[in-house]
Amino acid sequence: MSYEMKIRELMADYHRQRASLAEMQHRMKETVGTAVAPRQAAKATVNANGELAELTFPTNAYKSMAPKELSTMLLKVIGDARVDAMRSVTGMIGAQLGDGSETISDLLGPDADITKLITSDSLMAPEVREYLGGDAVRLDQEAASAEEESWPKK
């Protein structure tokens, strides 16, 4: 395969990936999460960012609740709706990236660590790795070493 043909193929792949990401972004913007409290006392709907979009009271069950109980129930149902939305979003991202949904969930949680997503194999395109041959391993090791040295210590 000629160099020009390979460049065209890589550019076509790039454009396909970009279109796919744009479609995913559109679907993510449309994503909502919903949860319903016990006895249908409340129903919460949040957008993909976890912002409350709608809060309804399908029954009158909330009227018999003490203020503290009502507050606790509302916080829980909104939190459950956020978890539902996050699962949808992480599912979309996981599907886009291939196997790795659990890693995505880990990255979006409270102990997020972007380095869990990036492996030395993912940093270099296979074509570049093939072109560099044995130098690819050395470059990976140098990059990992430099990253360790520059990463803040806890």
CATH superfamily of the domain at 29-101, by name, is Nucleoid-associated protein YbaB-like domain
Cross-sheet strand order for the largest sheet: 1-2-3
CATH fold assignment of the domain at 29-101: Ybab, Chain: A
Largest sheet: 3 strands, antiparallel
The CATH class of the domain at 29-101 is Alpha Beta
Low-confidence spans:
none
Q: What is the succession of H and E elements?
A: HEEEHHHH
Number of helices: 5
The percent of residues in helical segments reads 55-70%
* Form type: elongated
Second rung of CATH, namely the architecture of the domain at 29-101: 2-Layer Sandwich
Tally of DSSP β-strands: 3
The amount of beta strand, in percent, is 5-15%
Spatial gap, N to C terminus: 49 Å
Mean pLDDT, as a whole number? Answer: 80
| Class from helix and strand fractions | mainly alpha
Computed over alpha carbons, the radius of gyration is 23 Å
Organism: Amycolatopsis antarctica
GO molecular function, one term: DNA binding
InterPro entries: YbaB-like_sf, YbaB/EbfC
Protein name: YbaB/EbfC family DNA-binding protein
Description of the structure:
This protein is mainly α. It has a domain at 29-101: 2-Layer Sandwich (Ybab, Chain: A), CATH 3.30.1310. It has helices spanning 3-30, 67-97, 101-108, 126-132, 135-150; strands spanning 32-36, 43-47, 52-56. It has a 3-stranded antiparallel β-sheet with strand order 1-2-3. The chain is elongated, with a radius of gyration of 23 Å.
